[in-house]
Amino acid sequence: MRNRKEAKKRAEALVEQMTIAEMIGQLRFDAPAIDRLGIPAYNWWNEGVHGVARAGTATVFPQAIGMAAAWDVEMMKEIGDVIAEEARAKYNASIRQEDRDIYKGLTLWAPNVNIFRDPRWGRGQETYGEDPVLTATLAVSFIKGLQGDGEYLKTAACAKHFAAHSGPESLRHFFDAKVSKKDLYETYLPAFEACVKDGDVEAVMGAYNRMNGEPCCASHELINKILRGEWKFQGHYVSDCWAIRDFHDHHHVTKNGVESSALALNMGCDLNCGCTYLCLKEALKKGLIQAATLKKSVVRLFTTRFLLGMFDETEYDQISYTQVETKEHLELSERAAREGVVLLKNNGVLPINKDEIKVIGVIGPNANSRSALEGNYHGVASRYVTALEGIQDYVEDDVRVMYSKGSNLFKENEESLAQNEDRISEALAVTECSDIVVLCIGLDESLEGEEGDTGNAYASGDKINLSFPKGQQKLLETVLNTDKPVIVCNFSGSAMDLSFAEEQASAILQVWYPGALGGRALAKLLFGDVSPSGKLPVTFYRSLEGLPEFEDYSMEGRTYRYMKEEPLYPFGYGLTYGKIQVEWARFENKPSRKENLKMQVYLKNYGENEVQDVLQAYIRNESRHAPRNPVLCGFLRVSLKAGEEGKVSLVIPKTAFYVINDEGEKIFDAVTSTIYVGTCAPDSRSITLTGQKPYELKIEW
Q: Where in the sequence numbering do the catalytic residues fall?
C-alpha cells in the first residue's frame, strides 16, 4: 500500500459515500467516527521530535538540537525507526482498548526543520540547527526512519513549520515575516524541499505567522506555488494548532471564522488543528467554498490513513507494547547523548583519571535535575540518570562524590525565607573539599521553549539574552574564582554566553538536553570511556551585539554563513580526546555542475585515544550571489584508533556549486570554487581553537 495511486483510489471511493457534514468532521484533528462506513475516530495530533511525547512512557532521546550535534546521518534513521516502533506499539495497545485519544495516533508532527537563525528563539532546541544542509540531511534520514520501508507507512512524518518561522514566540500569532526571495530559497526552504523530494514526507505543517503578508496556513505562494507546484508534494497539509483562528483574531486578514476556514481550505490546508473548520458548513452555505474543494482535502487525509494501513492488516499490527523502552532503545538513546555532547574547551583536565582523585564535587541546579535531561515535547522515562547520579554510579565507592545545588535555576534564592544566594556558601564548601569540580548549569524547558507551552518563566518561551540567570551567573563566577579545576557542563537547547567560563574553566562541555540517560553518557565522557565527538550545529556568539533585531528575517549578519564578528565557538566546532587530521584530499571525478563530486580524503589520528570525529566539507563559490562565508556542503562521521590512518569517501552534491540570486533562482556563475575539508570550518576562530587548518582544493571553472 505504499502505492499512493492505489491508496488515493480507495480514499476517493470511501469519501464518495460521505455526507457533507461527515466530510467536514474529518477535517478536524480530532476526527469523529463514522460508524455506518466502518470508520473509527482518529486523533491526528501526536508528537515525536525526540521520542513519542505526551502519551506516558517512552524512550526519551536527546532533544533534537542534541541529536543534530552528533552529525550522524545513520543514527538519525535508527532513532526515527525506534520512535515509529514505539508509536506503533502504543497505538496497537490503545486501539485494542478503544482508546483513540490525542497523542496516541500514527501521525507524528515531527521533525521541526525551521532554521535556528537567532539564539534567542526558545523553540530552536527542537530543530537541527542553523544550517540548511545539515538540517536537510538529518531530517531526511529521520523521516525515512519514521516512515519505514515496509509495505505500509510505519508512521507518517510531518515537516514543520512551513515556513520562515523561528521566533519571536510572543509575536507569532500576528507577526508578518518579511523575507526576500534570496533568503527564502537559500535559507528557509531547502530543508523543506529535501523533506518533500528526498524524504517523501507525508505531511507538512503550516506556521502561525504570516510570510510577506500571507498567513502560512493559507499562503498561495507557499502551499500552491512552491509546495504543490514546484515540489509536487502529494501528501496532506495541516495547520499549526489554532493558527487558522489567528487569521481573524490576530492577523486580521479575515473577519470571522467562516471567512478564515474558507480561506485556509481554498488555499489547500487540509487538516485543522483547532476548531475553526467547524465553520465550513456556513462557508459552504455562503458559497465561499465548493464541495469539490472540501472533498479533495478529505481524500488527501484518507489517502494518508490508507497508506498507514488503518483499514487493513499490516506488518506492524503485532508490534507488542513490550517494544516500548527496550534495552536496545535505551542503549541507542545513551549513544545519541554521548555522540551529541560537544567538548568546547579542555586544558588537559579531561578525561578524569579516577585513580588520581579522592573527592569530586558536583555542583549546580542542573546537576540533579530531570528537567535538564528532557527538553520540551518529551515523553516519560521509567528511569532517569542525572549528571550527579551518572557520576555516582560510575565511580561507585572508589571516589567520594559531594553535591551542592549551588543556586536555584532562575530565582535568586533556593529557600523562600532565606537571603539571596543562599546556596553559594555550601557550593564553596563542596569546592574546597574536592579535588575536581563538575559544575552543571544552564536552562530547562521552563526557561526556553514554546510560547506558554509549560508556563515558561519569561512567558514567551524565548530568551531575553544569552546570559545565565543571575543566581547561576554568581555561582559560576564564585566557583571558577577558586583554585580548583572546574569542568563546566552547560545544559541548554541554545547558545549561551560562556565567555567567562572560556576564560576561567579547565574544561567546558555543551550537554544540551541529553535525554533520560544523559547523566550516564556524560559520566562515560568525563572519565574517558569514550571521547566527545559532537560538533556545534549552531554558532555560540560572544553577545547579541552585531546581531540584527530578533524580528528581522533577513539573513544578513546571521549564522556562520553571514556573520561578520568572530564567534566565541563557531558552527561545526568541537574537540575530542584525539587529534584526527586531514593529510590530503583529491577528486575522484572531474568537477562538474552536472554530477556529484566524489572525493577521497586521507585521515590520520595523531592522538593517543581511539576517537570518532566529523569530517566536514565547506565551499566558497566566487560569485556575488554566494553567502559571505564558506558554507557546509558535506559531512561524514569517521572513527580512527590511536595512530591509525586511512581513506574515506566523501560526496559533494552538484547543487553545492550553485548559488541563489536575488530573484530566488538557482544559478551557476562562479569563476572559481574552493572546497575546504577538515574536522572544523575554515574560519579563523575554528583554526585558532583546534590548531588545525582545513585542507583546500580549488576548482577553476
A: 240
